[in-house]
Amino acid sequence: MNDNNNKKMMLMLIIMIMMTMMTTTMKTTTITMTMTMMIMMIMKMLMMIITMMMMMMMIMMMMMMLLMMLLLLLLIIMMMMMMMTMLLLGCQITRLRSPLNKIRHHDNLQI
């Protein structure tokens, strides 16, 4: 998309330059020159607006992508936290179990 737009812009600029060159070489009246200049200005303005719009669109897309990435990261972090908590709980449970088992074993040994 961007490449095509850039190509179009380049073509337009080249055309504008050609037009100006033609007008200068032909040494036409000032009116035509002014007209061409006006047209060029309008075209430039349009191009600027288009570029701005494209930039805005790109920025919006980037923002959306960033937001999506952030959301994904948050989800991943949440999952990790859950996993960690589960592991910790598991460790605690095992820790709680192990001394009881040891005590039982000791009791058995004593008996």
Structural summary, described in words:
By secondary structure, the chain is mainly α. The protein is 95% helix and 0% strand. Helix 1 (2-26) packs antiparallel against helix 2 (30-110). The mean pLDDT is 73.
| Coarse shape | rod-shaped
Radius of gyration: 36 Å
> What's the pLDDT, averaged over the residues?
73
- For the record, the count of structural domains works out to 1
The helix content is over 70%
**Structural class assignment:** mainly alpha
Number of distinct helices? 2
Number of strands: 0
Distance between the termini: 83 Å
Strand count, sense and barrel status of the largest sheet are:
none
Uncertain parts: none
Strand content: under 5%
Topology:
Layout: H1 2-26, H2 30-110
Helix pairs in contact: 1-2
In short:
By secondary structure, the chain is mainly alpha-helical. It has one domain (2-110). It has helices at 2-26, 30-110.
Give a quick set of tags describing it.
single chain, 111 residues, mainly alpha, 2 helices, 0% strand
